[in-house]
Amino acid sequence: MGRGISTGDHLGSKDPERFRSWVIPVPRPIEVGVRGSMVEREEERASRAQGEGDSSQEQAAVLGAGVSGLTSIKSCLEEGLDVVCYESRPCLGGIWSSTADEWNLSGPTMYKSLISNTSKSMTCFSDFPCPASYPPYLPHYLYQEYLLKYAEHFQLLKHIKFSTRVLKVLRAEDHASTGRWRLTLKTCLPGEETDQLHAGRDSGQSEWEEEFDGVIAATGFYSKARTPDIAGLSSSFPGNVSHAYSYREPSPFHGKTVLVIGSANTAVDIAVEVSSVAKQVYLSIGDGMCLTTRIDSATGLPSDLQLRRALHAWLSLAVSTRILTWIIHKRTNHRSVRPRLKGVRFYLKALSVGLCLVCCGLWIDQA
């Protein structure tokens, strides 16, 4: 069976021969403390390679060093593959990669105030818990630090080539017999870090090619802004129209009347922050929403630890959707948020949407 391009996070195969198909099943559970450390596994593979030779080791390329890219590198190493990761930015982390001098970069850089909407217990990798000193919800810079610690712990950094853009992924000339793939690469200049796989080639810059047995595309799907086509907006609206993709901090909206379209976490985050400097902020909600705080007021624990328990999975099978929706309504839209006083209608199909977190009960009204 011919090799192909994978877009998954894990190889999910214990048999190296299945690398030829690159079919991605449901990721297997990680047995913490059973298979030994990465160093021990690499020593075992090195001892086997002395007798077998390196020529039998298949080569894999990973495109992108974000969350999926890092786990893909680790999975390739666990399967005994020779892996190289190409990252267009000068640092790892994908959309979480941001430093003090990068706020003006184009691309999906985090806005300065961003805090993860999932707690550290639900966000961390099962074989690498977050440090106990971390807060329940991680600011973006701590999450990037966590990813760096993860890469250092499992010795992934030496497999990553930073500031390298992938221009093309094509079948090699002998693909029919070998299944190999040919990558066209170039060094990424400052300001060209984003949109790793789909960027056009620039003249005057050196390019080179590499061939691999398989390719994992871990470039994510947040590298381009998705803007709705609203009839007449660009031609008749005199104000500034921007996308959350380019939002960094609220100062450009000082003294202005702002409309934020959307009801997910990013929209609420931006609406709350912009309200501190804007004249007035409106939040356009299409279909109602479910509101909750990051910390459950009854237990003092992160809300996602309360909402993602086995009991809730059992309840979804044991009771009707209407009853379970009522339970979620009572559990999430509590007094600290008070959505009805702010004109927010509870979304009746709560089980089919995510919850919107409102940190510390803040909102956008300024009455």
UniProtKB/TrEMBL annotation:
Biased composition (Basic and acidic residues): 38-47
Name this protein carries in UniProt: Flavin-containing monooxygenase
Keywords: FAD, Flavoprotein, Monooxygenase, Oxidoreductase
The enzyme's E.C. designation: 1.-.-.-
Enzyme class, UniProt record, top EC level: oxidoreductase
Cofactor(s) the record lists: FAD
Pfam families xrefs: FMO-like
Region annotated Disordered, chain positions: 38-58
Family, per entry: Belongs to the FMO family.
GO molecular function, one term: NADP binding
Domain of life (superkingdom): Eukaryota
